[in-house]
């Protein structure tokens, strides 16, 4: 299959250019001002913007165990609709993705569905119980480029030390869920004026930053890379910034809700559980710090932390409901609307935070850029179109999002994965 994209505005992390793009057999064959070659399909992209396929380092696909909430097929469809051509799924499933055969099955099922690459993230500890390490080499062999006990932090610092040591040998990346559970103490929202006013059990911001600090010190001591998931507080950002200046191999992600929403939104929405997430929504200071950290590179990338939950569970009272939001279908438009249109980030930064940097962090060669020889994973976007997040249009099996009704700029029109069109907004293919 040969696809020729004409007159595109290509956005790479370091440059913007007008050109044609020829895709042949899953690769970008040519990028040039005018390409006049035969193709099976020609896409006229005048006025449209082309990004390298987005990469989401942090997704929950709920399989095995909770296929009523999401599965590889529905999650892949949501990814394709959001422009994601590679997604990494967390192992907090039931059973956990903590062994070679389970991880292999996830990757194979992803290939069978064929709408996006699905990379399993293996658990760090068996059953994610925080006691005994999993077999890192076997998990790596099964396709796990990264390992995490996401959903819970590794309490035992010695276990994390061993995990970091073995990660070097097994060429895997440790992704840390930073939460001191003795401080978060089963809280439901960020500790502050609102939690006190309503007597809601709460999580102080230092529940995150104390573990950020511990993890960075371990990574520095062992000289091993570590990646910090869903960073949400100003205090964590300060610690990461200082560590990066000292040359520590630490990378970090945040999620769109941490630069858009705060604990005020929890109150304004009458404690609707669709505003409950872990780490919890912070305050204006945190939002400003996260934006600054994205701008200056302290935070390397944006992941969705796509966390589907059933309607029945999200309808429980705020304190009893599970944490988490879905995010794959809205991430691009949320970032474009809240960061690029408002002048916080440049359009090239979208390419950096959603494609180039995640590819670098995960060691994915030959992707994350629209360049000759790179993989034919592309997203064609109409930046001038606006849309509204509507329940009935969500393709994920779960609909738990605080962004229902949000009016957003920028529509993903076409997603090309491995040289094939896997999503088109006109026919929702
Ligand atoms: O809000 C969250 N939901 N945070 C997590 O760390 C886990 C996730 C989930 O699995 O639902």
Task: Report on this structure.
The protein is an alpha/beta fold. It has two domains: 2-50 and 375-424, Urease, subunit C, domain 1, CATH 2.30.40.10; 53-362, TIM Barrel (Alpha-Beta Barrel). Helices cover 31% and strands 23% of the residues. The chain is built from 13 helices and 18 strands. It has helices at residues 72-82, 100-113, 136-141, 157-170, 181-184, 193-198, 206-222, 234-245, 263-268, 284-296, 311-314, 331-340, 347-361, and strands spanning 2-11, 16-24, 27-32, 41-44, 49-52, 54-59, 84-89, 117-120, 146-148, 173-176, 189-190, 202-203, 226-228, 250-254, 301-302, 378-388, 407-417, 420-424. The strands form four sheets. Strands 1, 2, 3, 4, 5, 16, 17 and 18 form an eight-stranded mixed beta sheet that branches. The radius of gyration is 21 Å and the shape is globular. It starts with a strand and ends in a 5-residue tail after the last strand. 55% of the residues are buried. Bound molecules: (4S)-2,6-dioxohexahydropyrimidine-4-carboxylic acid.
Q: Which of globular, elongated, flat, extended, rod-shaped describes the shape?
A: globular
Bound molecules: (4S)-2,6-dioxohexahydropyrimidine-4-carboxylic acid
Count of spatially separate domains? 2
Helix content range: 25-40%
CATH superfamily of the largest domain: Metal-dependent hydrolases
Low-confidence stretches: none
CATH topology of the largest domain: TIM Barrel
CATH architecture of the largest domain: Alpha-Beta Barrel
How much of the sequence lies in strands comes to 15-25%
Distance between the termini: 17 Å
Mean pLDDT: 98
The major sheet is characterized as: 8 strands, mixed
Number of DSSP-assigned strands:
18
Quickly give the structural class.
alpha/beta
Look at the structure and give the CATH class of the largest domain.
Answer: Alpha Beta
Q: What value does the Rg take, in angstroms?
A: 21 Å
Number of helices: 13
């Amino acid at each position: 299959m040969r696809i020729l994209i004409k007159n595109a505005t290509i956005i790479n992390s370091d440059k913007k250019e007008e050109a044609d793009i020829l895709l042949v057999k899953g690769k970008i064959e040519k990028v040039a001002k005018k390409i006049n070659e035969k193709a099976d399909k020609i896409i006229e992209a005048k006025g449209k913007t082309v990004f390298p396929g987005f990469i989401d380092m942090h997704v929950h696909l709920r399989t095995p165990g909770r296929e009523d909430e999401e599965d590889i097929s529905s999650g892949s469809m949501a990814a394709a609709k959001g422009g994601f051509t590679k997604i990494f799924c967390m192992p907090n499933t039931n059973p956990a993705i903590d062994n070679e055969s389970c991880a292999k099955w996830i990757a194979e099922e992803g290939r069978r569905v064929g709408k996006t690459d699905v990379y399993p993230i293996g658990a760090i500890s068996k059953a994610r119980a925080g006691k005994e390490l999993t077999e890192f080499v076997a998990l790596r062999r099964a396709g796990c480029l990264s390992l995490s006990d996401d959903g819970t932090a590794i309490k035992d610092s010695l276990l994390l030390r061993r995990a970091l040591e073995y990660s070097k040998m097994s060429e895997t990346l440790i992704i840390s869920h930073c939460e001191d559970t003795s401080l978060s103490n089963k809280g439901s929202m960020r500790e502050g004026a609102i939690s006190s006013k309503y007597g809601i059990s709460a999580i102080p911001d230092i529940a995150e930053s104390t573990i950020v600090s511990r993890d960075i010190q371990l990574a520095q001591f062992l000289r091993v890379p570590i990646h910090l998931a869903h960073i949400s507080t100003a205090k964590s950002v300060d610690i990461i910034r200082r560590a990066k200046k000292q040359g520590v191999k630490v990378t970090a992600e945040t999620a769109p809700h941490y630069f858009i929403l705060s604990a005020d939104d929890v109150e304004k929405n009458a404690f609707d559980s669709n505003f409950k997430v872990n780490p919890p929504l912070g305050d204006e200071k945190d939002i400003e710090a996260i934006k600054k950290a994205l701008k200056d590179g302290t935070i390397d990338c944006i992941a969705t932390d796509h966390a589907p939950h059933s309607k029945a569970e999200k309808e429980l009272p705020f304190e009893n409901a599970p944490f988490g939001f879905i995010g794959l279908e809205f991430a691009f438009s949320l970032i474009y609307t809240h960061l690029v249109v408002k002048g916080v980030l440049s359009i090239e930064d979208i390419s950096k935070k959603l494609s180039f940097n995640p590819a670098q962090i995960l060691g994915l060669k030959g992707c994350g850029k629209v360049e000759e020889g790179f993989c034919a994973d592309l997203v064609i976007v109409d930046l001038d179109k606006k849309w509204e997040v509507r329940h009935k249009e969500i393709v994920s099996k779960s609909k738990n999002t605080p962004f229902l009704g949000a009016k957003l700029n920028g529509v993903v029109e076409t997603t090309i994965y491995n040289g094939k069109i896997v999503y088109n907004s006109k026919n929702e293919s």
